[in-house]
Fold these 3 entries.
Entry 1:
Amino acid sequence: QVQLVESGGGLVQPGGSLRLSCEASGRIFNIYTMGWYRQAPGKLRELVASITDGGTTNYAESVKGRFAISRDNENTVYLQMNSLKPEDTAVYYCNAEGGAYYPGSTLPLDFGSWGQGTQVTVSS
């Protein structure tokens, strides 16, 4: 099992900044992709940004130029959010996909895990 723990959400005024962190733990072999998704009330969960183990990034159009995703090692990902807008208000979820060892397995098996979510509220 792979666990993801997020931190860094909160309340910020429009135009402000926040930095989200997510650390993965468990019997991890490799994490291919880590990403951030968000879900606002009454809306579907959507991809915000993702980064591969090779450093390739992908962003939603709505956050390009304002948000930046990064990884400082294989198991930790950050989302720097600048110039925040009220429409960025949502619960932000960390996601990771890769290979991990499970009880009884001698080879790594694919996994996909989600964090518990962290609230980001942008309001004056």
Entry 2:
Amino acid sequence: VKLVESGGGLVQPGGSLRLSCAASGFTFTRNWMYWVRQAPGKGLEWVSYIFTGPGSTYYADSVKGRFTISSDNTKNMLYLQMNSLKSEDTALYYCAKDIVCSGGYCQRDVGYLGPGTQVTVSS
């Protein structure tokens, strides 16, 4: 399994970014795929996930209405469109598979994560 994120950067509050994740080494279709993030000093928080069936999408309350998860099964790509970004969205964002989460936070030593892409929201 290989997951490689891209698209992070520095953006002003209210701005937008689109994260991408290139997946390989497994059958992408009909899998649960996640975006998770880790801010400095905090745990690994799930942001959104999708069943690449295609199918259902889920969002953490903190990003609902601002972020949109999607996938392109023909390209084995996962995306996260992030709009109306806030300073509290600043974190290292990871694409993940087979991850275990509870109470909004995920175990780092279970499943697969990419190297991450940094998102910094600051004026």
Entry 3:
Amino acid sequence: QVQLVESGGGLVQAGGSLRLSCAASGRTFSRYTMGWFRQAPGKEREFVAADYWIGRTTYYLDSVKGRFTISRDNAKNTVYLQMNNLKPEDTAVYYCGAIYVSTWYMDFRKYDYWGQGTQVTVSS
């Protein structure tokens, strides 16, 4: 069982930056694939980035490549999402998800554990 707690959301102007954190419980955090997703009102949850623990490979939604960076600190059981050059279309509730598996997914339905979400609002 894994519990996830996100933090770091807020209101920022376009072009600004935020860093989201997701703290996880559990002793095998280093072997979980971690993902960041977002959900805007009236829309389905959307993949943003994933950190695949084998090879520490990362994957991104095309529209955030070059602006967002996912990283993890296994000693702190925490995964981060550094978001730079934010745009109004990045406004959403951001969630982190975890799955104990030797692969990675863009489909949010594949992830077993979720945090409560943190609101990110980007004003124009």
